[in-house]
Amino acid sequence: MDLSSSFRRLCLAVPLTFVLVLHGCALIKTVPPTYPPPQTVSEEKVERNEFSVAKEDDIIGQLVFVRLEKGDTLPDMARHFGLGISEIIAANPGVDMWAPEDGERIVLPLSHILPDSARKGIVINLPAMRLFHYKENGKSSLFVSTYPVGVGTTERPSPTGQMYVQRKMVRPTWYVPASIAQDHRKKGDPLPAKVPPGPENPLGEYALYLSKSTYLM
């Protein structure tokens, strides 16, 4: 199913409201909870994952509910709405990742805590596997966009610290590092010395080469 061309009714999560009525000094009667009508938001607005926030704010976005249509999978939804696969699976325990029920209601965890760091340029939260891009929006607010990212492993951890973008490349060629080539040879899955641009290239369509050599985004 082409998610980009479909229309969905997306509803923001809202807190439940209930009222306690006090009779005299001792009797408390509970009243059934009242449910505010769900707020409908446009799919286009939600899928952008871009926000304008006050500089002192620590949270962006909101939880969103959506009903799946025939042919939808959790990886489809994660890709379309800018979520990592681990994020959407954790938010929907018990939902079959590849064959959910038609019409099943799932949660899109599109609320994020901003990292405790300088809010300037690109910041990557490694435990959350999420990138945040900050741009100034006047004296008191910021534009923030966020994207899921892959990070290093225990054996090959991602570097930490401040770096800058040294150069940019469209449709980069991947020169396979010797350590990765060696691992694949041991598994009987040898890799070529380099992988040209295209669907088989793990770097994708764009690369940002960092000041720490051999690392890029």
Beta strand %: 25-35%
Largest sheet: 4 strands, antiparallel
Low-confidence residue ranges: 1-7, 14-29
Give the termini separation: 30 Å
Shape designation: globular
Number of domains: 2
Number of helices: 4
Helix percent reads 10-25%
Q: Radius of gyration, Cα only, in angstroms?
A: 22 Å
Give the overall average pLDDT.
84
Strand order of the largest sheet: 4-1-6-7
Count of DSSP strands:
14
Q: List the secondary-structure elements in sequence, H or E.
A: EEEEHEEHHEEEEEEHEE
Sheet/helix structural class:
alpha+beta
Structure commentary:
With 217 residues, this protein is α+β, with helices and mostly antiparallel strands. The chain is built from four helices and 14 strands. It has helices at residues 43-48, 74-80, 85-91, 178-186; strands at 10-12, 20-23, 27-30, 40-41, 50-54, 59-67, 105-113, 121-125, 130-136, 141-148, 165-170, 174-175, 194-195, 206-210. It starts with 9 loop residues before the first strand and ends in a 7-residue tail after the last strand.
Q: What are the defining features of this structure?
A:
single chain; 217 residues; alpha+beta; 4-stranded antiparallel beta sheet; 4 helices; 14 strands; 13% helix; globular; disordered N terminus
What topology does this entry show?
Blueprint: E1 10-12, E2 20-23, E3 27-30, E4 40-41, H1 43-48, E5 50-54, E6 59-67, H2 74-80, H3 85-91, E7 105-113, E8 121-125, E9 130-136, E10 141-148, E11 165-170, E12 174-175, H4 178-186, E13 194-195, E14 206-210
Antiparallel strand pairs: 1-4, 1-6, 2-3, 5-10, 6-7, 8-9, 9-10, 11-14, 12-13
Helix pairs in contact: 2-3
